[in-house]
Design goal:
Oligomer: single chain
Number of strands: 21
Structural class: alpha+beta
Largest sheet: 9 strands, mixed
Helix content: 25-40%
Number of helices: 17
Strand order of the largest sheet: 13-21-20-14-15-19-16-18-17
Radius of gyration: 23 Å
Shape: globular
Strand content: 15-25%
């Protein structure tokens, strides 16, 4: 690491954050995001914080490498804290700050709310007519032809999220992220979904929260179970299901309100609520919202310097070359197929999927955030009736009725779901139209519901090509996607991780670029099924 950067020539900002959980680094230049990296993808531990990483600067160095930048180009380091400011001073780990200053780096500190404000400053530079909807930790605003409009009452909405989070036994966690974690994979119940409507309402650029109605709702819900609702460690199944239903109903109502207030807004990233990924159908230039400390890191990286070129996502995780993949395969003493012809490779994988196989797909840069882009996924054909069993029961060891994530190309999503389809890279929970149920027979739950993600060709172009090729070849438009991850949830960021997951789970094949590994020796030697 150099003793002093050439500050006069530099435009690079390195941001570090997530000291206690969801550690991350991001590199930005004049408002443009160059790269971002989860700490977990470096050390192989899910949701790890930078304080638990042996050396946070290893994460920083790997992120700089992903951005194609060097330490010489770093103008400043922004340390984003998830600890509230004391006396107006952001609280960051003293040894980390001293380490950076000792090497001549210009150090700034910021809270997650500072990152929100930096992102707001960035939004003020957008061209007139670009709609933007932003929901941060305790504030929200939108931009339209009339400039930035403050969404009044959003602070009350954030306070309601904190109150409900505490009532559900999650008071020590960041409320938005806690509610999202509770609600994940759960379908809102009509009873509680309807009960949330009197609690929150939308007016012109305003949110109204009835606090007394929320307290009555919490009390009524608590009376329906025999244990304390805020006993988060209770094994009581009814209480666990109720917590999930309330969290889900609350977030659904928040999404409805922000859509009502913001219209066709464009969500951009900033703070820990970067925010609810399904808030709107559009987002700013491919920036991925993250509802935790990672969002604050990206907000700091793009907001620390005056925007010049605009935000454009280059790929926000680590990339691995063909030589890296080949080294991992040969060091593992594995037989593999190398297919240099893209069309033939797509035919092979499409045939496997149509035959009901589970295929792991490893491409390009590692995923960053909670919405899969197709770079580290396990794939199944959504039309195959046993895909739900294969993914939920045998791969993930969970209920067969758990919601599955399904990916489509943007054109196909619009054709099937119309204006309900989310923007590329965003997630939406939708009911499959009756005319298309056969295409989702192995993906939709008993209520006909899926979690839909629209593929973004800039994030994983090979996977986007597979989606289009599989539809053209078989007529099946959708693929079920699940994280290519170990049993503890850590995403397989490196080729060697992908091999480990493949051989410890019921996967049939692994695709890494033009290399294919078949667990069935017959498939390797004699080709794939003809479906």
């Amino acid at each position: 690491m150099p003793t002093r950067p050439r500050a006069g020539d530099c435009v690079i900002t390195l941001a570090l954050g997530g000291w206690h959980s969801h550690g991350a680094a991001a590199v930005g230049s004049r408002g443009r995001l160059l790269a971002a990296l989860d700490a977990g993808s470096v050390v192989g531990v899910r949701e790890i914080g930078l304080l638990a990483v042996p050396d946070p600067w290893v994460v920083a160095a790997r992120c700089l490498a992903a951005a194609g930048a060097s330490w010489d180009e770093v103008a400043q380091v922004c340390l984003v804290t998830d600890t509230p400011a004391v006396g107006g001073v952001a609280q960051v780990p003293a040894d980390v700050e001293a380490y950076a200053r000792g090497r001549g780096l210009v150090v700034g500190t910021a809270t997650t709310m500072d990152a929100d404000r930096a992102t707001r400053a960035f939004a003020e530079t957008l061209e007139p007519g670009q709609p933007v909807l932003y929901a941060g930790i305790a504030d929200a605003w939108l931009a339209s032809d009339g400039g930035l409009v403050h969404i009044t009452g959003y602070g009350d909405l954030a306070a309601a999220a904190a109150r409900l989070s505490a009532a559900l036994g999650q008071g020590r966690r960041e409320p938005w992220h806690a509610l999202q974690s509770l609600a994940e994979g759960r379908q809102p119940e009509a009873r509680w979904d309807g009960a949330m409507r009197p609690v929150m309402a939308a007016g012109p650029a305003a949110v109204d929260v009835a606090r007394e109605a929320l307290e009555r709702l919490i009390a009524d819900a608590s009376a329906t179970v025999s244990v304390a609702l805020d006993s988060a460690d209770s094994p009581h199944v009814g209480a666990q299901m109720l917590r999930a239903a309330l969290a889900s109903a609350f977030l659904v109502r928040v999404r409805e309100i922000l859509n009502d207030v913001g219209g066709d807004g464009r969500a951009i990233v900033g703070g820990r609520v970067g925010t609810l990924p399904a808030v709107s159908r559009h987002r700013l230039a491919d920036v991925l919202p993250c509802p935790d400390a990672r969002g604050a890191v990206i907000g700091a990286a793009i907001g620390a310097l005056a925007p010049g070129e605009g935000v454009r996502l280059q790929g926000i995780g680590e990339n691995f070359s063909e030589a890296d993949v080949k080294l991992a395969l040969e060091s593992s003493r594995l037989d593999y197929l190398y297919e240099p012809r893209p069309e033939r490779l797509m035919d092979r994988i499409s045939a496997l999927l149509a035959a009901g196989k589970l295929v792991a797909w490893f491409e390009g840069r590692a995923d960053f955030g909670d919405v899969p882009c197709g770079s580290r996924v396990v794939v199944a054909d959504a039309a195959e009736r046993y895909s739900r069993d294969n993914v939920n029961v045998y791969l993930r060891h969970r209920s067969v009725d758990s919601l599955l994530t399904v990916m489509l190309t943007a054109a196909t999503a619009t054709r099937i779901f119309g204006d309900r389809a989310p923007a590329p890279g965003q997630r939406a929970r939708l009911t499959v139209p009756p005319a298309h149920t056969a295409a989702f027979d192995g993906a939709a739950n008993k209520h006909g519901i899926i979690d839909l993600v629209v593929a973004c060709d800039s994030g994983a172009p090979g996977f986007h090509q597979l989606l289009a090729h599989h539809e053209a070849r078989t007529g099946h438009p959708a693929l079920v996607v699940s994280r290519l991850a170990a049993a503890d949830g850590a995403v397989a960021a490196r080729p060697i991780d992908a091999l480990a997951v493949t051989y410890t789970t019921p996967l049939d094949a692994l695709v890494m670029g033009r290399f294919v590994v078949f667990k069935d020796y017959w498939l390797l030697r004699s080709g794939t099924p003809t479906a």
